[in-house]
Amino acid sequence: MNTKAWGPGTQCIAKCDHTKPKLNELRFEKGDILTIIEATQNKGQYRAKHNKTCEEGLISSNAVREREAIRADPALSLMPWFHGKISGPNAVQLLQPRENGLFLVRESIRHQGDYVLCVCYQNDVVHYRVIYQEKKLTIDEETWFCNLIDMVEYYMKNQGAICTQLVKPKPKEGTKSAEKELSKAGWLLDMAKLKIEEQVGEGEFGAVYKGDYMGQTVAIKNIKCDVTAQSFLAETAVMTKIQHKNLVRLLGVILQNELYIVTEFMGKGSLVNYLRTRGRTVIAEKQLIQFSYEVCEGMEYLESKKLVHRDLAARNILISDEIVAKVSDFGLAKADPKKEDNAKLPVKWTAPEALKQNKFSTKSDVWSYGILLWEIFSFGKPPYPRMSLKDVKDKVLTGYHMESPEECPASMYSLMKSCWELDPGKRPAFKKLKGKIEKELRSTKAD
Ligand code: ADP
Ligand code: MG
Asked: Which ligand 1 atom lies nearest to the CA of residue 205?
């Protein structure tokens, strides 16, 4: 008996067919994805919506299992057959037993930037040099590819100029095939069911489109480059673990040459744009406090899961058609602090200890939240107006912080200042901030 309580929005996968439903029951087949609407009075019974047919009805919790979170360890890989810098003899050793078409790709040691495709054929291993030239890859200088994934897909379907079609990848130890894992856990969506419509945004890593997945309006982030796609998989693994009304929900991913991340569609775009395009005359103060509260709720949830966001800013808050603010972009969440990442840091949002010593924590998120509050109450102005990044870095370390935005309630400004304590230990937790903003919300009149 499943005694677990599932909240609204929980995604479940059917464990069996239920093709002869009784009155009010939902019809589904094994493997279908259902979304919980609510628990009913009866134990173990839920109202649910079928993601495909969009029908609603009753289900028994015994017939379904909750969609699993993806474990990030061992690492999900889009290219499990990619072994990095290993030697030729090492590759020959790995390719056992010698089945025709068993293959791997390694980095060339002799030719920097090139790769080597190693394929088993008639009890031997053949090595093909993959030339990297003008951002394209080729083996025969006739067929060219944008990336290794493209190339492998091609030679799995065509023999081309090599000895045999590729049949079976030899996975690198410590990696799992992203496709297999995502599919097993129920996160792999079907490209055939996805309709891609107009472009709605441009991210750092590619375009964002509006679309439709089995009747639901969705946002689609398409990431082309294999190396970038690989790092985005980390984002995806994080997103499978979190479910909250103030965090942008992941519906699933599609792997088809490229990576597509499918999330709920946020019809009003980013918070920073929402504020800038409407301004003080349209948006009431109470709404600003409401946004602050909603972001704080989402962050409190991340805090409770011990997840650090690292890139909290108004540009990464999205607004739904119902005017609810949700936190998005977990791209940097949990990523390993690497030195070279430093150049990409959003300096004006990043806490001093994170800038200086790479110390990211929930408390450095609290600092960023303070900057985000400032953005909200100044209707989307860029923080530290007219100051250079270097100036900000230097002055913030000595205790400098921004003035209050115009007409900002004193209580909200004092919350900002509490987020900007130099000592991370002195900053309030999101849980505490939430309580304070809730009070503020109650005492503010709607106008
Ligand atoms: P970046 O890489 O700059 O963080 P994103 O890829 O997150 O950018 O998004 C770029 C833009 O695309 C956003 O500012 C927003 O306008 C739009 N966008 C992103 N995700 C969604 C979504 N889920 N729903 C609607 N619009 C979105
Ligand atoms: Mg963003």
From this structure: 2
Q: Which one is the CATH code of 271-446: 1.10.510.10, 3.30.10.20, 2.30.33.40, 3.30.465.10? A: 1.10.510.10
Q: What is the pLDDT of residues 373-401, one digit of tens each?
A: 999 999 999 999 999 999 999 999 999 99
Do the bridges between strand 216-223 and strand 206-213 make them parallel or antiparallel, or are there none, so unpaired?
antiparallel
Q: Are 344 and 321 in contact (CB under 8 A)?
A: no
Of the ligands numbered here, which is closest to the C-alpha atom of 321? 1
Distance CA 43, CA 424 (A): 45
Q: For tokens 């100051």, what's the residue?
A: 387
- Whether 329 is in the pocket of ligand 1, judged by its Cβ within 6 Å, is yes
Burial 248-284 (b: 16+ CB within 10 A, else e): bbbbbbbbebbbbbbbbbbebebbbbbbeeeeeeebe
Q: Tell me if the pTM is above 0.90.
A: no
What the block records as the tokens of 379 is 């209707």
- Tell me the CA–centroid distance for residue 405 and ligand 2, in Å: 24
Taking the C-alpha atoms of residue 222 and residue 254, their distance in angstroms, rounded to an integer, is: 9
Q: Where are the beta strands (DSSP E) in 78-121?
A: 102-107, 115-121
Taking the CA of residue 329 as reference, the ligand 1 atom at the shortest distance is 7
Question: Coil, strand, or helix at residue 444?
Answer: coil
Domain ranges of the chain: 11-18+26-64, 79-169, 187-264, 271-446
